[in-house]
Amino acid sequence: MSSFNEFTLAISAIILVVTSIVGVVLLSTSVFNINASMKKTVNVIEKYQRPYIAININDTNLIIKNTGKSQAIIDSIIVNGTEKLNQFDGKTINPEQSLLTKNNYENQEKLTIEINYHSENRIYKETLPLR
């Protein structure tokens, strides 16, 4: 075989190897970018679809409302760190649904409510200062 043919084959092999390596690197980078994009998309969808429990107080009622887009199951509601509202444990609250309970919190200067609830996928805990 002539030296020109050997040289041409060597150059072709080097080009083929370099092209393969560049292709693998670009493919790997694309897969990582797609994975990161999918995680962000799932997080945005989850934040949009999750339940959000809001608690308001008026003159005579404590109003618990699900302002989110999915159903929530209440695990516990604790007022001022000590008083537990057992009547709501295990209650399901649908989107835009409200639950009412009579309150006797007019004389309390500071009112903080801790609510634990869950959806199909996650557990949530929120502390809401009302006064």
Report on the architecture of this protein.
The protein is an alpha+beta fold. It folds into two domains: 49 residues; 78 residues, Immunoglobulin-like (Sandwich). Helix content is 36%, strand content 32%. It has one helix and eight strands. The strands form two sheets. Strands 3, 4, 5, 7 and 8 form a five-stranded antiparallel beta sheet that branches. A three-stranded antiparallel beta sheet has the order 1-2-6, with no helix packed on it. Strand 1 and strand 2 form a beta hairpin. The longest helix is centred in the first third of the chain and has 47 residues. It is rod-shaped. The model has no long low-confidence stretch (mean pLDDT 87).
Number of spatially distinct domains = 2
How many beta-strand elements? 8
Distance between the termini: 92 Å
Could you say what the CATH architecture of the largest domain is? Answer: Sandwich
Compute the number of helices.
1
Summarize the model shown.
36% of the residues lie in helices and 32% in strands. By secondary structure, it is an alpha+beta fold.
